[in-house]
Amino acid sequence: MPVTCNHERINALDFLRGIAVILMVQQHTGYWFWKSGGSISSLIAEHPFMVIMNGLGGLAAPIFISLAGAGTTLSYASGKKDREIFLRGIILILFGYLLNLLTPAWFAPWSWYVLHLIGLGMCLSPLLRRMNSYILFLVASFAIVATVMLLEYYSMPRYFNNAFMRGALSIPGILKLAAISGNFPVFPWIALFIAGLISGRWIKNGSYMNILKTACFIFLASTLLFIVKQGNFQLFNNSTGQRLLTVNLYMYPAYPIQFMALSACTFMLLFAIIAAGKRISIKAEDIFVLTGRASLSIFIIHIVVIRNFMTLSGFWQSFPAAVTVMLQLAVIAVIMLLVYFWNKTEFRYGFEWMLRRIK
What is the pLDDT of residues 137-152, one digit of tens each? Predict the structure, then answer.
């Protein structure tokens, strides 16, 4: 018999998704608007606020991916069938390729971004959901470790730039983007989706402390790797060892230390929001909840509209920090205003609305 998910629980997840939307928008617009210049060390010294905010924006994608996994588990619990979840995954992948076509200044038509990754995770869910949580944890761990080995095996550059992540139009090139060299490739990012699937089980069962324990375990593993990095051990004094211990603040590719640190922060936030939701009523009409429910539409629309405008208008990275912050606040205010009024029609004709129509 299907399990009916508690509304406060779902509201809490949408609330966190709404926070991720704000983090995403401010990170994207910060990069698109701000005339930063200089090295990362000089930017930290001269503009610490801008650097910190950009860093916080790095949590957006991990939150979206993990919540997609948790949401998939809860969808199954509410009675959704494999066919429906699989078809939604296919549609999400198609949305990803549509975004590529609509944003040629950023993506190649065959680029692999976060929607593709989430869509693939949903397509794999009919298989993954039949595994117990321990097996899923091992699969996720393998994805993280295999990332380093695959990057080394294919002699990938230590750091990726946007031109590299556009890849090449060939079957091997497209598959390589999806596997290891795209923006959010399967290795290691599918690990977050799988961890989300496991978290969804704990949310369904009310075992919230398991989420916090897992977050602490992942953070400890990341910290231990960072400590090993400081030791300059001979064992890791080779190309594979250096990749394993690389700290890449740019995040492309995502090496284990910062990937696990971001994952730990994501699940700590998930636990905190659920715990807060048990003490403070998170209502369906709260603006962050509504923003979370429109996250897919906001994700696609803000990239297509703002990214293309900044490129075509000649305003790309042309504003000082103070003006950038004011513009960011204005963009976020417009988005929330749009969400408030669009909710009155239950986000009709939005991308979420389209997904919901798949039966």
Answer: 999 999 999 999 999 9
Does residue 187 contact residue 179 with C-beta atoms inside 8 Å? yes
Helix axis angle for 7-33 and 256-279, nearest 10°, is: 130
d(CA 125, CA 117): 12
Exposure string of 99-135, with b = 16+ CB inside 10 Å and e = fewer, is bbebbeebbbebbbbbbbbbbbbbbbbeebbeeeeee
Residue of 53, 139, 87, 82 lying closest to 325 (CA atoms): 53
- pLDDT of 133 reads 97
Q: What is the pLDDT of residues 330-351, one digit of tens each?
A: 999 999 999 999 999 999 999 9
Single-letter amino acid, residue 321? A
Which burial class, exposed, middle or buried, applies to 216 when counting CB atoms under 10 A from its CB (0-12, 13-18, 19+)? middle
In whole angstroms, what is the distance from residue 338 CA to residue 335 CA? 5
The C-alpha atoms of residue 244 and residue 146 are separated, in whole angstroms, by 10
Joined together, the tokens standing for residue 183 give 């923006």
Spatial distance between the Cα atoms of 10 and 33, rounded to a whole number of angstroms: 34
pLDDT of 240 over the 80 cut: yes
Of the chain, the percentage scoring pLDDT greater than 70 comes to 97
Contacts of 94 (CB under 8 A, 6+ apart): 119
Q: How many CA atoms lie within 13 A of 185 on its CB side?
A: 28
1: pLDDT strictly greater than 50: no
Q: How confident is the model at residue 60, as a pLDDT?
A: 98
For CA atoms 144, 127, 62, 99, the dihedral sign is: positive
* pLDDT tens digits, one per residue of 68-108: 999 999 999 999 999 999 999 999 999 999 999 999 999 99
Which residues are CB-neighbours of 184 under 8 A, at least 6 positions away? 61, 65, 112, 113, 114, 116, 117
